[in-house]
Amino acid sequence: MKRIGFSGMLLIIVLIFSHSHSYASDEILTDSLSYFNYFKKELNTGVVYSLQQEREQIRTENTNDFDEITENYLRFRWANRNWNLALFKQEVWDYNFEIGPFYGNGTMLDSSVARVIDAEQKVAGVRAKAAASYASRFYYDYKNYTIVKVDVWGSYGLLRRDATGTHIDSVGLETPYSQKSDLSKLRYGFEAKAGWGRGRLNPMNHFMIAQYLLEKNYERRNFSDREVVLLAREIGRIKHARDARTGHDPETEAGQLTAFMNRELMLESPGTVLSDWEMGEFSPRFEGTRMELGPFFNYFNREPDFIYGGYLKFENAKYCSLKWNRNLSASLSYNSYKQRDWILLETGLGWSFYPNLKTSFDFGLKYIPGVIVNDMDDFGAVRHNFIPYVNYYSQLNSNYRMDLAFSWRIAENDTFVLPGPEVSVSFYRSRY
Questions:
Q1: pTM for this structure?
Q2: 254 and 147 both lie in a single domain
């Protein structure tokens, strides 16, 4: 039997998507209060520690080289992050470089027609890594867009491996195996996708700060959404004039903001807003819904090396209140590979809590079921995977940040997800 073709899968998705396609009305296009611009550049330098499981495999007709390691990695990171979120174009790009030591332990399997080595291993070394990503959504009207997204990365590491286990030769004789070896690893890959989409996620960061300042400094007054939006747009105008390379003057910016509040909103000066103005530097916080579909291509210089297919993704973000956001996503993909195909559904439901302008907590649950596709009428069992997660972000002052992330991957087996914990701790200085 023939496997499900990628072109057939994509055609079905396109027909479903095109059925709901329509152009935005003139009323929406002329409503200047229905969106916010968000432009920001960050230059970050700091240290990152991570704990995670990694698995690599390279196979030929006669050999199989398999490694699985629980790795601790401490490195210095330099990163350049950019957001250019406007009405008719939303772009996000970043690039980073990191270098540092790592160590870990796990298992290895090196098999061929002449031998089989099955061993426990300990590794330690140093690694350098560079990565870059670019995503662009071009809106040809208010709601409909095309998307292009590319991620590339490469790493090079020097390490020492200490392996102990068993060696079985071609006649079946088993002997103890113990070897220390110095190795180098070059790894690289890319992910690319393109497609079409409908909808919009609107960045609410400036609106959030405007709402916070008004509610904190004028507790006895109720403000209309239009008044909050006017202040949010002024906050955006001030912040968008910044240059991350030369820096900015918070006192001057805070003075511009209080002058606007007095002149345009007829408000008495709230005194100093400098302490609050220096905070609130969160990643984009969204409101809205979008759906997109298209083809994708992934490459890695280990197994699985080249994967292609099609995807359909839905995202919904709800600005519930000043302190709460709700985020929902679902992505269905059909993945083709030379050895097998599979269908993967990745869903997530999470919340973000902002107790103040310095701190945020993210928590939620990802559910990832997957199924192997052998033939048109031959599907494997559905494998269920769950990933509960929690993230903590703190803006220590106007320059320094801290990120903590923890998740636990719960899986029936390792077909689609490697079971176990994943931890990341970041401390860095940010210029913006």
A1: 0.89
A2: no
